[in-house]
C-alpha cells in the first residue's frame, strides 16, 4: 500500500505540477512513518511479521551485537535491491510510464518480501545468541490474574 500511495503522489506531477507532487509525496512519507506508532503490537509473537520485526531490530543492532557475515550479506543485498526497485518505481511514476513503474514496483515488492523472510530467519538464528534477544517473543503475564490465583489454590 505504501509504495502505491507514494507512486500516486509522484504520478500527479503531470496534472498538479512538480512542486505540489513533491509536497504530496513528502506528506505520504510523513503519514506512513507516523502510522507505525499508532498500530498496536503484534498479538502473536511467533507470526511471520513479528519474527521479521524482531529480525529488523537485530539488524539495526548489528554494531553492538555482531551478525554472522553469511547472514549479513544477503540482507544487505536485498536491502539494496529494494532501494533500487523503489528508485525505478519513483522514476516511472514521475515520468508517468506504467511499464517502468510496474517493473520497479515488482522488484521492490519481491525484494522486500524476501528481505522480511531473511530478517525472520535472522531472528530465529540469533534469538539464542545474546541475552537481549532471548525473551523478546515472551508475553508478560500478570501474577495477579484470576487464572494464576485459581492455579495456586
UniProtKB/TrEMBL annotation:
Keywords: Membrane, Transmembrane, Transmembrane helix. The chain crosses the membrane at residues 19-39, 75-94, 100-124. It comes from the Bacteria. Pfam families: DUF6653 (PF20358). This is Uncharacterized protein.
